[in-house]
Amino acid sequence: MIVTLTAHPSVDQTVALAGSLERGAVLRALSATSQAGGKGVNISRAAVAADVATLAVVPARLDDPFVAELAGAGVPVHAVGPAGEIRVNVTITEPDGTTTKLNSSASPVGDELSAALEEALHAAAAGAAWVVLAGSLPPGLPARWYADLAAALRGSGARVAVDTSDEPLRVIGEHLELAAPALLKPNAEELASLSGADPDALESDPAAAAEAAGVLVQRGAGAVLATLGGRGAVLVDGDSAWHATPPPTTVVSTVGAGDSSLFGYLLGDLQQLPPDQRLALAVAYGSAAAGLPGTTIPHPHQVRPELVSVRALHPTEGTVR
User: What average pLDDT does the structure give for the chain?
Assistant: First the structure.
């Protein structure tokens, strides 16, 4: 089972424009959708679509429409209170795939809710293969909350995957030896924030990205899956390094593509695939998501790992074997 924690859930509203975004103009929308979301929630949606057991832990009231929508979609939810209103995030997509996001923030999380979330997560982890700590942290939670959770979960029997950014990611990076997540999933910008490298250089050079990821593995991460946009992704663990290139994809929306990539990796792990095939499945899921509107999560029949090109890299030098 995959347990996901979405500490900062959101109602994701997506507006698809007929043309380019122009500040101050009156624009025509082709479509507008709304969906209960958040990084962990998206991973649980992908798990349900792939027939993988999952549980989405979220700070929400039991009677919140957010919870009802997920339940209606077949996503098992553990709603933890006391919680306030779910925030609303707005995504604007243009015909060429350019995506603009306007993210709001939730009400502050107090000690009671923080403790309840931790208790719920520890209880769920006892029967899980993976626990995913995903997304930003709401006001009130300290930046080291994910790092502390990852460290505390090491004795649960479940492996921990972390996908976050900004201060929570920086603290994870500072305490990798203690947190020691089994999987860290940064994008190029997030990987650059941990390594001090230039994000454009990492996104354009898989060898450089693999080298930066390798440093994180040496410092305590079990594996690093770094997504590189159109250049695919690299996977580095203690024994190997790989780069995968996606098939040609008409990008519709990049929202949720990283979450789908992470799920693809976890699915490959649950299927006991070797690292290169886990990476291929991750990239196939991410590219499938990028070709779908809004935050649509792909179904397995839309995912084509056989079209992904994978090559082995030297784990430290980034050169092709």
Answer: 93
**Domain assignment present for 320:** no
Structural domain count of the chain:
1
Q: Tell me, yes or no, whether 319 lies in a domain.
A: no
What pTM value is reported for the model? 0.90
* Residue range of the domain that includes 82: 2-20+30-313
Q: What is the 3-state secondary structure (H, E, C) of the chain?
A: CEEEEECCCEEEEEEEECCCCCCCCCCCEEEEEEEEECHHHHHHHHHHHCCCCEEEEEECCCCCHHHHHHHHCCCCEEEECCCCCCEEEEEEECCCCCEEEECCCCCCCCHHHHHHHHHHHHHHHCCCCEEEEECCCCCCCCCCHHHHHHHHHHHCCCEEEEECCHHHHHHHHHCHHHHCCCEECCEHHHHHHHHCCCHHHHHHCHHHHHHHHHHHHHCCCCEEEEECHHHCEEEEECCCEEEEECCCCCCCCCCCHHHHHHHHHHHHHHCCCCHHHHHHHHHHHHHHHHCCCCCCCCCHHHCCHHHCEEEEECCCCCCEC
- Is the predicted pLDDT of residue 318 greater than 70, yes or no? no
Residue 245, amino acid? T
Q: Tell me, what's the pLDDT at 319?
A: 38
Give the active site residue among 237, 259, 269, 276: 259
Report the CATH number that the domain containing residue 139 is assigned in CATH: 3.40.1190.20
CA–CA distance, 3 with 287 (Å, rounded to integer): 24
Is position 163 annotated as part of the catalytic site? no
Q: Does residue 204 belong to any structural domain of this protein?
A: yes
- CB count in 10 Å sphere of residue 69: 17
